[in-house]
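Action item from last meeting closed. Structure (202 res):
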């Protein structure tokens, strides 16, 4: 399958996907990595892997919709079967989300529906959670609200800092996202009528 990945930053999740593809675990190919930030380190990771990169800065556009339309045009040049959000720090318009309905995934560092939005680790600590984690979900117009495909849980220890907890979650992220992308590329995960169907047998 053809994959396009959107990033804004470090790109550790992107790297995990690149590694899994190079190891032959995912039957897919990343056709392009697109960033809204020119200095995103993930762009270097893509270049190292000989993947075409594009920078499309939201600052060059008057409003959200005109940016999203330009982004759609850029993405669609690569005809993706799957669009992967990997730390893409933008809220997407309904028009964009509907265009990629059922073929856009996001990874969010919380056990959704808990802690949508930002600063999830600190908020979980502040709330006295004993368990936290990460979710991979299909993207729907509600922010971090699309149906969850899979979650991975980690313990929260009483003396955890947000950084320590983030690192524990991150370790899970790096195996979880490639797993779901692998399933998607095998047609083993779909969204139908807003619900997820997974055939996750090994
Ligand atoms: C990750 O924490 C991911 O869960 C969230 O954004 C972060 C991206 O990190 N959606 P990276 O750019 O993949 O390193």
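Sequence:
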């Amino acid at each position: 399958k053809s994959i396009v990945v959107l990033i804004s930053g470090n790109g550790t999740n992107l790297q995990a996907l690149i590694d899994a593809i190079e190891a032959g675990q995912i039957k897919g190919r990343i056709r392009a990595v697109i960033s809204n930030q020119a200095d995103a380190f993930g762009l270097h990771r893509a270049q190292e892997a000989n993947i075409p990169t594009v920078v499309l800065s939201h600052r060059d556009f008057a409003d959200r919709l005109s940016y999203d339309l330009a982004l759609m045009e850029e993405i669609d040049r690569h005809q993706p079967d799957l669009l992967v959000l990997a730390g893409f720090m933008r809220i997407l318009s309904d028009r964009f989300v509907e265009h990629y309905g059922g073929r856009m995934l996001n990874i969010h560092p919380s056990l959704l529906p808990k802690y949508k939005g930002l600063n999830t680790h600190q908020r979980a600590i502040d709330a006295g959670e004993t368990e936290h984690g990460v979710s991979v979900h299909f993207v729907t117009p509600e922010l971090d609200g699309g149906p969850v495909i899979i979650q991975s849980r980690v313990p929260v220890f009483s003396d955890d800092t947000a950084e320590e907890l983030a690192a524990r979650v991150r370790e899970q992220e790096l195996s979880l996202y490639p797993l779901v992308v692998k399933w998607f590329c095998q047609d083993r995960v779909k969204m139908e009528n807003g619900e997820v169907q997974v055939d996750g047998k090994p």
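Note appended to the action item: The chain has a mean pLDDT of 97.
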